[in-house]
Amino acid sequence: MIFHRPPHTYVGQVHLLVEDIKRSLVFYQETIGLQVLQQSEHKVVLTADRSTPLLTIEQPENAAVKQRNRTGLYHFAILLPNRSDLAKVLLHLLQTGYPLQGASDHLVSEAVYLADPDGNGIEIYSDRPSETWTWDGREIVMTTEPLDAENLLSLAKGENWQGLPAGTVMGHIHLQVADLDKAEQFYCKGLGFDLVNSKYGQSARFVSSGGYHHHIGLNTWHSAGASAPTPNSAGLKSFSLVLPNEEARKKAIHSLHQLGESVTEENGTVLTKDPSGNQIQLLVYGNS
Fold this sequence. Notes:
- Helix content is 19%, strand content 35%.
- The protein has a single domain (2-284), classed as 2,3-Dihydroxybiphenyl 1,2-Dioxygenase, domain 1, CATH 3.10.180.10.
- Strand 6 and strand 7 (109-115) form a beta hairpin.
- It has 288 residues and is an alpha+beta fold.
- InterPro entries: Glyas_Bleomycin-R_OHBP_Dase (IPR029068), Glyas_Fos-R_dOase_dom (IPR004360), Glyoxalase_1_CS (IPR018146), VOC_core (IPR037523).
- This is VOC family protein.
- Pfam families: Glyoxalase (PF00903).
- GO terms for molecular function: lactoylglutathione lyase activity; metal ion binding.
């Protein structure tokens, strides 16, 4: 997981709003395999290693159904340490009969796709070794081909499902945005990410730190010109970006101000919003 620690900037946690906290907790424990780290009546923090927060689910007051064709979450992506871990996840999902939305080979990674009970998209994936990735200049070569499920499942070896392994991290987040050019400027010129794939033109782009295939995906497939969802609807509340040190965070804050973007601090947490209204916590490694 070299791309998910300093000196890189990466996604740390994702915070979702859900309609029914009890329903969602059952799903994330029994179907996804996360564990409870902290729990209150309307909010649960989930982890894969019993110590590191990975996902927070929260039921807001007057919770409403997830709104379609708005900005926000396309999917969050859980990165597993090994291909064999993905094999075990796929076998588990097939055995439980939970509906999959897709299963793909992206050259740089292999992935399965599904959604939680509120329709929040989830990708679970494993990376191929970075030395096998192909670059065309400054752009990573990715595609979407059918997953060789039979080959993958051969690694599962019929072992009992034990949930997600301790080395699991939040690999990336894919966002629905209103305007790709504004989003690219915010994440690249503001937060210092590199544009690593723009082959989709005015429909999707991918940005990363340190040569990863992508830490953040951006698309307008269902959200071109759209507004943000209402604050109480199921969907993305916020996500965190972990910067390598305080100097990097100060540089990012300065760059965002230069672009005219707002940065605030609440209870010691530095917050900003991208041009599509997606809220981001700017954390520093070791203090997150």
